[in-house]
Task: structure prediction
Amino acid sequence: MKDEYDQLKLDNQLCFPLYAAARKVVALYTPLLKPLGLTYTQYIILMVLWEKGETTIKELGKKLHLDTGTLTPVLKRMEADGHVTRQRSSTDERVVNVSITDKGMSLREKAKDVPSQIGACVPLSEKDARELYRLLYLVIEA
Result:
């Protein structure tokens, strides 16, 4: 017989395995990124900048699903470390442009094997990984 509190059981929650899996995967990155002097958040910021070279904080937040309050202190630290520069737009002072520096770009070579190293730690076939990716983006974009 189903009781009125079944929906509150941890085993009946979709959110918990998503949360636990995300924490586990991010934790797998730590020993790979630590020698580079990066956190996971810094790494994903650099991934965007390695591709684009420059973007706005607003666009970076949109791409990474992070708010300005999360991004700003991370970007300040990355700027202090010499990986990025931040500059207010000359046409709209509310807009802050973020650009990768040569030092930040040089980390790309050092990080190039990180995705395959993570892939080796996650026990999914390529087909299952693609399906999980698809399903997760359905959740993210809902």
Summary: The first strand starts at residue 54 and ends at 56. The chain has a mean pLDDT of 94. The CA atoms of residues 80 and 114 lie 24 Å apart.
